Amino acid sequence: MFIRRKNNRGSAAREWIESIIIAFVLAMFIRTFFIQAFKIPSGSMIPTLLVKDRLMVNKLRYGAKVPFTKKRLPGFSQPQRGDIIVFVYPGKPKKDFIKRLIAFGGETVEIKRGDVYVEGELIEEQIIKNIYYYNKGQYGQFHQKVVVPEGHVFVLGDNSAASSDSRFWGFVPEENVIGKAEFIYWPVDRVRFLK
Known about the structure:
29% strand; 8-stranded antiparallel sheet
């Protein structure tokens, strides 16, 4: 009795292709719903984030967006004042920005003498209080009180002198928020969780 050998070359190639497709689908699923890597292109968040820092953004925390819709999955927490968030820039939908969340819809923001006031109260969070914010732009003039529209947030860069943020171009729709920046993973000497 003779046993016919199967051509292993064809089945090995098929297994490799299947493995690559499964890995790709899994990576896209994780990137869409859980966590995504970003690279910092500018100095608008210095000293917290430096140019070329690479960081991970948690999409699950606030609830990942369902692709091709404006809906979100339930998140584990709500955005907090002082969070570093990544969002789709309102002026260019293909561009992502990273800034610090300062105020929510319905709140009044004012920048005076380098400090940020929300609802007339000085923000006491140390990370925000330790930054000098300059009066610049259409929404950041001296003695100007700005009301954040409902369904939007007001964001500022930590490098206030060189940041294009809500002072200049306005407010970020909540639906544009991608997630919370959690930690720097590269370069090695800068690995840390973000505050």
